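Handout, page 2. Input:
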Amino acid sequence: MAALATFNNGRSGSGRVGGSGIGGYLVRRAMPHLPPWLGVGGVGIAGSGAHLMWADSVGAGVGLTLSAVALTGATWWAGRETSPQRRLHSAITVAAGSSWFAGAALAGPLAGILPDTFLMGGAVLALSWNVRMALRTSDGPVAGSADKSLLEKVGLAKAKIGRTEVEPNRVTASLALEAGEQTNDDVARALVRIASALDLPQSAVRYQADPDSARRGELVIVPKDMLTEPQEWEGPSNVGGSIMDPLVIGRYDDGSPLQIWLPGDPAAGRNAQHFLIAGGTGSGKGDTALNVQTEILSRRDVIMWLSDPKSFQDFRPLLPAYDWAVEGGSGTEAMVAALQHVIPARTGWLGKHSYRQWTPQAAEQQTDPTHSCRPDGACGCEGMPYMVAWMEEAANTLRNLGDDAFTGIAQEARSAGCSLIVSLQRPSYDQMSTSTRASLPSVIALGCDPRDEGFSLPEAVINAGAHPGAWGNRRPGYCYVVAGGIDPDRYAAPGRTQQFTQAATAVMEMLAQWAVRNGATADPITAWAAKAIVGRAYTGRQAEETESADMQHDHDGEEELVDGEQLDAEDAAIDPDAELPAAAEGDDAPLFGQPTGHKPSPDEARQLFARALDEFEQQGQMVVGPKDFMDWCDANGYSRPWVSARLKDAAMEGRLEPTNQTGRWRIVPVLAAA
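Output:
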């Protein structure tokens, strides 16, 4: 704490003195020790002057005596906040000086023993203060006493401050607590009082407990918040680099970069990671997601799937860069189903090519015999890029699919070279199963309700001083990051992600086009596994887009000109002069208030229902239920119970598979069913 005071206020009495060489050096070294000697000289001069005024005055003698007693008592009272040694030393000095002054004023400075007392006693008192000052600059009795006073205030009187390191905007002091009486938990509870004593925000004081001791740790104080001014995003940090390299998403409160990693690194002893991004409304969750996504999409060996029930409100400039992007509802249901089948397919490919976990080498063509699926040399297989599955506003998905929708994915995806990132406001256990939450240990925790801190951060990090509840939505982008690859001492250090302004939109659009031309595309194994489950719903990002393809897409479904008139494409082949077909058996007779038409037979109805499933598949809607057939029922005169029965029949025939959600079915692509 004394080091912090020095760090904040600078050293007093260190004014620069002109001159150089030995003489200048001696003067500079002597100056801090001059005040006690100047005080002795001042008392001598004042006593001689007072003798001229009050010599042989009885009243002055009484007044000077009482003044000496009062001054000594005031000194003793004023020293009650200091150490006992300093208090006693100050009182003795004042008593001796005031007594000599009174005697010199009444009898004269040269009377009796006053000259000897002045020369010897004054020198001793001045030297005693010089010695005290010299000891003060050594290893610490005075600094320790100042620290002791502060620790007493916060209830840690028996704790001892050890080695202290002062860095730019950071003070670190080792702390040893009283054995058998105090624990690291006591320091965690006292952090807010320490911040109050130092007049600092709560997040500026944190405690890193020694994992090998219950009573030792380091107290870290960051007096100046360097995150007050937001840092605007100017572009990704490493365009064209590997996803194995760190993702820079902001900075810490001491100015160092805030970085995270997704793939595992055997050399660094780091496993692949899933992430939970949690924060209340207005906490900066959208900007944080953009920081992470722009870093991912700027790398050459990764693909990303995105589910966003908010209709890509924040991510629309990046849409061309995603390998697959869907909104909520049936699209997300299809993506989750595809992930559940893609993961084992990717794991099998990595295993056959002798990868214990994904590495950048796995994304390249397999020309190394040690990573071959053939026993007779290099296989030449196409590489497999890393994969990121991003579930934005996941609370919506969890409500629809169940709180364990991501459990299997989270538990198995890391071995498949895949990271799952789940973003939601409140990761409470009534929204997300405990198994899923346990599989998402890496977290970016933004401001939240104080009651929700325990849902986002581990208890040990909260005890170390991390409190996102202190920010709420008042400091967008402020966050704590707990993840592999980050020094655990940094877990309780606040950071802030970069801010995305309107000017960032053009840069994100450029990044998306870069990804279209230079980014990775899905490998055959991933693409095959996805299409086998969701068919045409998964298209994958194309490496090249031609103008003709865009034009063809733009003209799809337009009306055709027939004899100068516009007709729908489906009506272009109709002969307007042909006779209408005669009534067939089964045609309904017109009844009042009821539509007329042909009622299909049971076999025809089944065929009609099969064609309806084909239409859903062609449109990319791979998860259906009775509510999706409401318009179809109205058009064909069938009831919802009839549709439910047909859905069950189709499931028995292998055309549908049940999902985790009651009453919802996943369409099995025709090729997969065959």
